[in-house]
Amino acid sequence: MPEKSPFKQVDEKHVSAEVTCMRWSPKMDLIVVANVQAEVILYRLSWQKVWTLPAPCEHCKVTCLAWRTDGKVVAVGYDTGQMQLCDVENASCLHSVTLSGAITAICWVSGAMLEGGGTEADDTTEDVFQDMSSHYLPRLPAFSKGINKGCFMGREDNVEDSKRLKGQKDLNILVTGTAAGRVSLYAYGVFPVGEVDLSRHGIGKSGHILHASLSEDLYLLSLLLQTHREDAGSRDVYLMSFDTTLLASRHKQLQTLALKFGQLLSLMTYLHTTIEQMQEAWEDILLEMDSKLQKFAEEKNKVCGGSVSNDFLQLLMFGIPSDELQVFLLHDLTEKGLKKLGHSIETSYSNIQKLVLKHLHSVGLAIVYHLEDIRGMSLWYDKFGVLGLSTATVQQAVAVAGSFMLKASELQQVIDGSMKNLKAFFWWLYVVIQQLSDEPVPPELSKMTEQDLNFVAHFLKENFTEELDGRQSGFKLEKVGQYLKNEELHDPPDGSTNPWVDFLEHNPKLQESSLLYRACPTKSLVQMHDSLKKSVDVTVQHSAAVVGQSLQCVSTSHLFTLPHSESERTSPNPDSHNSAGSMTVKCTCTRPSPVTLYLVRNFTSFDRRSQETGHWS
Q1: What is the 3-state secondary structure (H, E, C) of 462-499?
Q2: Which one-letter DSSP state was computed for residue 72?
Q3: Last-in-domain residue among 516, 540, 564
Q4: Phi-psi category of 146—alpha, beta or left, where left has phi over 0 and alpha has psi -120 to 50?
Q5: Does some domain include residue 609?
Q6: Mean pLDDT of 120-133
Q7: 3 state DSSP class of 447
Q8: Which label site among 237, 367, 417, 443 has the fewest CB atoms less than 10 Å from its CB?
């Protein structure tokens, strides 16, 4: 007769693939499951499927899962080193980072025991650093429907909070460990606040992190790891403890800084989506016009020589086209083709112009505002300097953001000028084609003003250029698309007549001022965007490096050794538990005989900093 169990099975469900790991939600009746196909599936308690997150790439595996403490975000770690933060409502990827090595451990801890744990002056930190951006910055406009918006999907009413940080009152930290022996800490899962490389602590390059846990008062970081002995083929299992007092003593400043950077990262995501839409709105149809003109120039050079620009200027001044130009207009370009070309250009440029005016300028202004806020924090060294916030790196990011805004304004001016000149040029060509075809010209188009003629003449001068060898004509009708490519501008605007540029050239000392944003005349908008991302990353990583240096190893304990005969088929099963003033790490070793349980309790406060170790078989 089987023994009675105190646990009663209430249900049994089948899944489509073998389950590798699962985690219950800390707040709701939800369970997230990962299978051997690297899919992540969210179920309700009734086993109703909520959503499925497909594998990010082929031949990858989900290694670990973790819930944010409020149950609104799920962290997924892969053996490729990629970590994704997914919205629990729709599985959209809120944030993604790639680490050096397969992710083997994830722990998300809330600083629930931090009340009164900071310095005495910390009580006024929240009053000093109230976020006033909502009072000074307009709300970012939502993106148009029917396009792929990534993490903005379903949240058009709050695009400023794409990282889902709004309403976070307590600091929470995501701890990740990799097979390469590196530990990374992220405030709210997005802001890096420290990194530990175990190879610098006498463990060696073969350190493999099995479990990582952070005490809820943020005073102690515990790591369970294994190393391989190359000579014997066995594995040693260690428990390492790190003092993280800096995180606990400066948790309010860290929370303020992390939330500010979270806002900044949300804006950077919005900016990236805006530029993607601009690239989608741009059409390279003008390149077709360029190729037709190029072909016409080559044929003209073979037959009779001369330049295309002279033919067009002769047509503009005297109204008489050359024989070659007449054939080109009537048979190659055609009235129908010209109408289609003009409509496509007007639609494309109008869409890009709306994105620049409505989205790009708004998000650029917000980025500069938040970076200036962070620069102000960096000037208060007593509060934020110890967290690695460098004024020099933040100022560099502010300067790049200002240069990006100048480039956005430059693009807007290029769009305005291109639309004005192209419209006049196509209008004039349409009238010419109608006259050459003996077709009636609408009265509203038959009369061209002197201003229209000046637009056309200026367009021909700027876009129909003669090469130095005199054998080939070059055409530059399209000037907007070059800003949306990751390469330098092939036809940058001429700033020699700009009085401000002339003023700076005659006052070189002003160019060294941090109050002035520098223009980058040869850089494209995409290149400036990349520079902005790099400068923000440098600011973030500098802070993480400084905090990481403060994490000191206080103890290293050897738990057990797995012999070569058992090392491949036996793996430890670690876990941890937080309580007031202490953290307990549990580890079971399922060797054939006997099964061993290790319990290690670390006291986290200064006056009780010690370790108790016990094991049972």
Answers
A1: HHEEECCCCCCEEECCCCCHHHHCCCCCCCCCCCCCCH
A2: S
A3: 540
A4: left
A5: no
A6: 58
A7: coil
A8: 443
Boundary of a domain, candidates 75, 98, 121 = 98
Q: With CA atoms as reference, report the closest residue to 410 among 532, 494, 326.
A: 494
How distant, in Å, are the alpha carbons of 147, 159, 178, 543, 587 from that of 195? 38, 30, 11, 10, 24
Domain count across the chain: 2
Angle (CA) 355-97-524 rounded to 5° is 35
Q: Identify the residue whose tokens are 């009340």.
A: 115
CB 213 within 8 A of CB 585: yes
Q: Please give the single-letter amino acid code of residue 431.
A: V
Cα torsion angle, 472, 478, 482, 483, sign: positive
pLDDT digits (tens, 9 = 90+) for 22-52: 999 998 999 999 999 999 999 998 889 999 9
Paired with 589 in beta bridges are 596
3-class SS string, 2-58: CCCCCCCCCCCCCCCCCEEEEEECCCCCEEEEEECCCCEEEEECCCCEEEEECCCCC
452-466: burial string, b at 16+ Cβ within 10 Å, e else: eeebbbebbebbbee
What pLDDT score does 122 carry? 46
H helices of 220-307, in order, are 245-249, 251-281, 285-303
Residue 201 lies inside a defined structural domain of this protein: no
DSSP letters of 125-152? HHHHT---HHHHSPPPPPPPTTS--GGG
**For residues 406 and 418, what is the distance between their CA atoms, to the nearest angstrom?**
18
CA dihedral 477, 482, 488, 489 (to 10 degrees): 30
Q: What is the CA radius of gyration of the chain?
A: 32
Torsion, Cα 510 511 515 520, to 10 degrees, reads 150
| Type of residue at 499 | P
**Rounded to whole angstroms, how far apart are CA atoms 551 and 557?**
17
Query: For residue 80, is it within any domain?
Result: yes
Closest to 201 (Cα-Cα) out of 220, 225, 179, 217: 225
**Where in 162-273 does DSSP place strands (E)?**
172-178, 182-187, 191-197, 208-214, 220-228, 235-243
Distance CA 226, CA 234 (A): 10
Tens-digit pLDDT profile for residues 101-118: 899 999 999 876 665 544
Q: What's at 448, amino acid-wise?
A: M
Using DSSP, state whether 271 is helix, strand or coil. Answer: helix
Q: 608: buried, middle or exposed (CB in 10 Å: 19+, 13-18, 0-12)?
A: exposed
Length of the chain: 617
User: For the purposes of burial, counting CB atoms within 10 Å of the CB of 200, is it exposed (0-12), middle (13-18) or buried (19 or more)?
Assistant: exposed
The DSSP call for residue 604 is: -
Residue 84, domain CATH = 2.40.10.480
Residue pointed to by tokens 């909070």:
161
> Domain range holding 65?
11-98
Coil, helix or strand at residue 106? strand
Judge whether 311 and 325 are in contact, CB under 8 Å: yes
The H or E element containing residue 325 is helix 323-327
The answer to whether residue 245 is domain-embedded is no
pLDDT digits (tens, 9 = 90+) for 66-92: 999 999 999 999 999 999 999 999 999
Mean pLDDT of 488-497: 84
